[in-house]
Amino acid sequence: MGRKREDREKGKKTRADHECNLDGQYTNPIRSFRDLTPGNIQEAISRSRYLQLLISLTLIGAILRFYNLGYNSIWLDEASTLNFAIKSIPDIWQATTAGEFNPPLFYWTEHIMLIFGNSEVVLRFIPAMLGLGILTIPLIYLVGKEFMDRNTGIIAATAFAFSPFLIFYSQDARAYSMMLFFVTFAMVFYFRALKSNDLTNWALFGVLSALAFWSHFYALVIIGALILYALFELFSKIKSNIRAIQPMVISCIIFGLICLPLILVTIQLFAKRTASAPTFGIQGPDIIIATFAQISGSEAAMYLLLLLFIAGIVQAFMLDKNKGIFLVTITVLTFVISNFLSYRIPMQPRYLIFLAIVFFIAIALSSRLLYTLVNSRGVVYGFIAILMVMNAFMLVGYYSGYAKEDWRGFADGLQQQTRPGDLVVVVPGYVSQPLDYYYSNTSDQTIEFSAYTANDLKAINAQKNNNTLFYVVTGDISAADPEGDATEWLKQNTKSLGQNTGIFLLTSG
Length: 509
Fold this sequence. Notes:
Elements: H1 2-11, H2 15-19, H3 38-47, H4 49-66, H5 76-85, H6 89-98, H7 105-113, H8 120-131, H9 136-147, H10 150-162, H11 164-170, H12 176-196, H13 199-215, H14 219-233, H15 235-240, H16 246-273, H17 286-296, H18 299-319, H19 321-341, H20 355-365, H21 367-374, H22 378-399, H23 407-417, E1 423-427, H24 432-438, H25 441-444, E2 447-450, H26 454-461, E3 469-473, H27 477-480, H28 485-493, E4 494-500, E5 503-508
Parallel strand pairs: 1-2, 1-3
Antiparallel strand pairs: 3-5, 4-5
Helix pairs in contact: 4-10, 5-7, 5-24, 8-12, 9-10, 9-12, 10-20, 10-22, 12-13, 12-14, 13-16, 14-19, 17-18, 18-19, 18-20, 19-20, 21-22, 23-24, 26-28
């Protein structure tokens, strides 16, 4: 029976499937952990094109992520990460319950990393290694393989490896890369669970989804979307046998138990965050274009990749209607929820980083439209080459200059201009976090103040006596002072000494 069923499955393969098998007639002997013997591993590496490509992409991806890891200076959010990470493990949790709008898992991880120091490289090591570097690239390959086939997986892995958007956040000491890692890992077992509906895969999906939620609150959006789609996919099975829903229910219970303390905190924080309208971020449908543009790496690349994305969705519907519905469901639900939330909380494309999974898988699927016509495995290699070359041009720009505010260089310049007794006013006050990472008013013998409003600035100005007042100002002033009173006061009472990557230095006029 097993042989007949296998023969039937082989008979279902299309000509395109056969000719685009990069391994040709070779069959990988590694099917499970029990097959991981030295001999099988050596044979697979030497003969499997998929494994060779995946290893190469993973190594290149790691190089791209660790290259110049400490080049950009710490920016505001990374400095905030450090300020939370230096707290004790219990105090980090206490900070979350007190109002910090990020879960504690990433901060706990960074707290442990501080054993090795607090340099830029140390702070960014976990995102580069765990989130988008050595581990997530093989995972997206597995997601693509489980969703469709190995060609989809290897093309998606290429897009992940060379994506400027993903590389940027792998070199950022924030939780986005950790969230993406756990979401990607969870989706490997999610697709397996949809096929088998077994408890093991559903349980692993529940555990990894919980870790994604403990990494970033916004992971709940895609987790919820995945559950909704699973109900649709399994509806016929559930309709005929209600017990078919049991493994998924257990998965949700596992998620709920692991996340229970965080869920209670999330409800409180959401009520607090939505008590007033956001003062920064992207609102409404603009979040859609901004997200696609950033994931694509540039607006120019976005148009080409969006065409491939749409073509991939069309191909998915042609191959399996449910797969097309999945791609559309996850994308639409994410944007509908984000559009709604954008009027209540600050919204940024980086919160939607998990959409890169769906985006690049659909793009990889678009290759099938071409190789059904060409009938050549060269189509897969061609897609890999195009993604590499296209992203290489964007990466040249990324590595050739500062991608973040240069607080390191600004602090050096500030120190050269100040004299003992001068007053340094940081506007808004919270940007003192990245400034003070590089600048010490104690060693510079200056007096540092924080200001948010025009009244703050007036009060500080009254204390200057015969000393010079320096104002350190960033674009964050518009979020901290939405009425614009502080901005207007600075315009009337200061003059510019220049700016460095969006950080402005003013002095009393």
